[in-house]
Each structure stands twice: as C-alpha cells, then as structure tokens.
Amino acid sequence: MSIPPFHLAFPVHDLDMARNFYGALLGCSEGRSDRDWVDFDFYGHQIVAHVAPAAVASRGEDRNAVDGEAVPVPHFGVVLSMEQWQTLADRLTDAGLQFVIEPTIRFKGQPGEQATMFFRDPSGNALEIKAMANPANLFAKG
C-alpha cells in the first residue's frame, strides 16, 4: 500500500531534548530546522517539533479506555511491521524508557489484533507505535 506522507506539527519545550529523543532514541533523521522548530523523518512522514512552552504546559492528561488500558489522548504514532515494532520495543526497553503502556498485544484473536506501546517524549507528547498481526486488518471492523 502506497500512501502519501502525513505532516504533523506538535509543541515541545526544548529542541535539544526533542532532537535527542526523536533523532538519537527513535532513529528519525533530521530535516530542515530553524531556531524554534525542527523537522524529523518519522518513518517516511514529516513531523515538526515547534518550541511552544505554553502549549506544553497547558496540556491535560486525558485518557480513554481501550481494551482494558487507559490510553492517552491525544496521541500520534505509526504502524510498523511486527519485526520493526519488536526491534523498536527492544531498543526503547534497553534504553530504560518509561512506558505509559508497556509493549503488549491487544485485541488478541480478533481482526484488530495488534502489538502496541505508548510512551511520552520529553515534552509530554504521547506516542503510540503499533503493528498489526494481519496488516490487511488495519481498518477491519471487529
């Protein structure tokens, strides 16, 4: 499946911390940047960290129940292959990253069965990285 890349701009309080987290830890290459923002290649998608301390400070801690877990809202992420997901889960675990929801399998035995993990960047932005047991079921109704 070939899809156009999405673009997401999000607030951070510190660009150096964002560069370390998205670049060094997650492995996203850096694109253009300026004094108050930096682009990252997030698995072929363009995400842009913008310095916006007031937006970071005003963020709530809302959560919704999904398959017995309290999922942070809002969040963003990407759907990887199972192999990519496991490699990243292992790297983040080995780095001592604190997960909001530990790497796990949800919706076991259902069309939407998926590996998932949730964590926050240094500015508190929530990310979900997932992989589908059957990638063709990404939008399947259960």
Q: What's the helix and strand layout?
A:
Elements: E1 7-12, H1 15-25, E2 29-34, E3 37-42, E4 45-51, H2 53-57, E5 63-66, E6 69-72, E7 76-80, H3 82-94, E8 99-106, E9 114-120, E10 126-132
Parallel strand pairs: 1-4, 7-10
Antiparallel strand pairs: 2-3, 3-4, 5-6, 8-9, 9-10
Describe this structure in words.
With about 140 residues, the protein is an alpha+beta fold. It has two domains: about 1-55, 2,3-Dihydroxybiphenyl 1,2-Dioxygenase, domain 1, CATH 3.10.180.10; about 60-140, Roll (2,3-Dihydroxybiphenyl 1,2-Dioxygenase, domain 1). Helices cover about 20% and strands about 40% of the residues. It contains three helices and ten strands, in the order E-H-E-E-E-H-E-E-E-H-E-E-E. The protein has helices at about 15-25, 55, 80-95, and strands spanning about 5-10, 30-35, 35-40, 45-50, 65, 70, 75-80, 100-105, 115-120, 125-130. The strands form three sheets. Strands 1-4-3-2 form a four-stranded mixed beta sheet. It has a four-stranded mixed beta sheet with strand order 7-10-9-8. It has a two-stranded antiparallel sheet with strand order 5-6. The longest helix has 13 residues, at about 80-95.
By CATH, the architecture of the largest domain is named: Roll
Give me the oligomer status.
Answer: single chain
> What fold name stands as the CATH topology of the largest domain?
2,3-Dihydroxybiphenyl 1,2-Dioxygenase, domain 1
Helix and strand element order? EHEEEHEEEHEEE
What would you call the structural class? alpha+beta
What's the CATH C level of the largest domain? Alpha Beta
In the predicted model, the low-confidence regions spanning at least 5 consecutive residues are none
Distance between the termini: 22 Å
Q: How many structural domains are formed by the residues?
A: 2
